[in-house]
Amino acid sequence: MSLFKSTSMLISILGIFMIITTLGVVAYIGICIVSDGISSNIEHGGQYDKLSSLKANYTTLKNLLDDKKERAYTSTDGSLNINYLNAVSAVNVANSSIDNADSAIYANKPASEIDDQIKNAEDKINIAYNFVNKL
């Protein structure tokens, strides 16, 4: 009878130990996931700022283009109409590039890839500004 009690007690203690160990492992994994998410957000902080600046530049650019729309539509000058359509196209390409950079950030792509996307968007914004300024 004593052997049965000691064996039963040992199995109970081992079971409790295994439950505590399992909870510890699950807690550790959870903490690692949360800390990786936080450090990822901190790592992309500068990229979020650049993206925000690009979006502000796009809004300004779009407003400039909208201000020149009426003049382009009422003009009989064919080159002005062509330049306006080129500017609209360049602004749309810039917006697409900004969306690509935004998607790369939210998909947790590598920082170098995100930086490339942001650089591409900056280049497209500059090209679009050149087209709009020709109007």
Which structural traits does this protein have?
mainly alpha; 135 residues; 2 domains
Structure explained in plain terms:
The chain has helices at 2-43, 45-74, 78-106, 111-133. The protein has 135 residues and is mostly helical. It has two domains: 1-43; 45-135, Up-down Bundle (Single alpha-helices involved in coiled-coils or other helix-helix interfaces). The chain contains four helices and no strands. The mean pLDDT is 87.
- CATH structural architecture of the largest domain: Up-down Bundle
Q: Assign the CATH class of the largest domain.
A: Mainly Alpha
Main sheet: strands, sense, barrel: none
Shape: rod-shaped
Estimated radius of gyration: 29 Å
DSSP summary, beta strand count = 0
- The number of distinct structural domains comes to 2
Share in β-strands: under 5%
Q: What structural class should be given to the helix and strand makeup? A: mainly alpha
Provide a short characterization of the protein structure.
This protein is mainly α and 135 residues long. The protein is 92% helix and 0% strand.
Topology of helices and strands:
Elements lengths: L1 H42 L1 H30 L3 H29 L4 H23 L2
